[in-house]
Request: fold
Amino acid sequence: MSASRTPRTHQLVSQRAAAIPPSGIRKFFDLIAATEGVISLGVGEPDFVTPWHIREAAIYATERGHTHYTSNYGLLELRREVARHLEQRYGLRYDPATEVLITTGVSEGFDLAVRALIDPGDEVLCPEPWYVAYFPCVHLAGGAFVPVPTNMEEGFRVQPEAVQARITERSRLLILNYPNNPTGAVMDRETMGRVAEVAIDNGLTVLSDEIYDRLVYGVEHVCVPTLPGMRERSVLLGGFSKAYAMTGWRIGYAAGPAPVIEAMMKVHQYVMLSAPTIAQEAALEALRRGEAAVQEMLEAYDQRRRLTLSGLRSLGLACAEPQGAFYVFLSIAGSGLSSQTFAEQLLREEKVAVVPGSAFGASGEGFVRCCYAVSAQEIEEALERMGRFLARHRQ
Amino acid sequence: MEDIFRILEKDARTPPERIAQMTGRSVEEVRATIKKAEEDRIILGYRAKVNWDKVAQGRILALIEVRVTPQREVGFDAVAARIARYPEVHSLYLISGDYDLAVQVEGDSIYEISDFVSNKLAIIDAVQGTVTHFLLKRFKEDGFIIQGEDGSSKRLPIAP
Reply:
């Protein structure tokens, strides 16, 4: 006879993974897939296909057999080109050998930076609304996420006083993301300078996600490490996805002080080894010969931005004028609906997809994110449908 | 001004109201600019780009190299102007290299084109000789890809 067995409860998923909140946008996938004739302003990437000369460079690299790993840091040639690019654009000097790391998109770069910069229990301040990956990455690294709310009246620009007010003993890192996803906000140099002073006064490191740096419209992009005292305390994340329409290639870079880049590389070498070689070759071509394509796409985005804003104004809808990225963060206060309900009903009733603002943190409630990287015809049609929807739901 | 032309060059049907919104100008300004550009022959015309390969009877296109004796005072201009007047001539360029004029001719059949070359083009006094190339297949025309994938977007409908 065998002794009675009482198996231990089987826990398949870690508590840490289970604690990641479900994505606020995932359920829309199924809903959109089941609906015909949807105009989606819920996209988060350019509608342009990667310029042909960049695709061709990747094909050529494949033909020549460039199919092996690269250095953990990335191709030196590409790191040199990134360093040259940052010097030409922003007057920043980084040593390509020790201060630049090629990452698998800014997504990976962000995760690496957080893991390299914080210890469990450290507090990470982040302007809210925030890009959806920030909170989970900080959570996975054991950090405490401290949102710094921003609002439409201040154009969703983070205010130095608001950062200062949330500083504690455990404050360690400040995340910045301008031009901003989801709000399209761009920081002016004066305000950004004062935010930088708060970081310096409180011994914070700054992690600046500048993936949208090239997409600004008639204003200056303030590159964080160019501010006084910031180069030595900040990690700059940049990439190719938005400016060169290369989202699917998964390629980006980090630049910062050598010790941080080395720490990031240590994590990177074990989780990624090296960024995709073919994508690195494509990125090299983008930096060398992609500027004309960037300018052409930039003009198209700006035209659609104006078209969207003028359409929204005629519908009587409020938003802070977005000066960067390709999003409008639209107030839906007049509808009396939550952003989630608004987005669901708009999709069901008028077949227009937008992203509920609540997906980007509590300060996003009362807003929806509309992406204008779609054709002018689609923008006009979507606005017309939204106009009908609002006429029915306006309180 | 150039931004207006670039928008129209991509889609000539873009209404002035939309162009005004896209460029931050007034509708009146856009209309006036377009009108002036039409008068000044900056905008030469508006037409549909038809893919005749998809219509029952396709069209025949030929590229003709023409060697010409330039004439005193007018060089190539007089003979070029003469050739350009034929409605069969689709486009006409003076080029550098082995020959002088590149003539693109369109017709409904090979016979129509050979008739044009032998009875109209070759007999012009200044024309020394012609070489006719018939087009076998169109891959790209005026920026439109005719054969193969057009590279249209395959994005996820919703993404962070």
About this structure: The beta strands of chain B are 60-68, 89-94, 101-107, 127-134, 140-141, 144-145. The helical segments of chain B are 2-10, 16-23, 27-39, 77-84, 110-121.
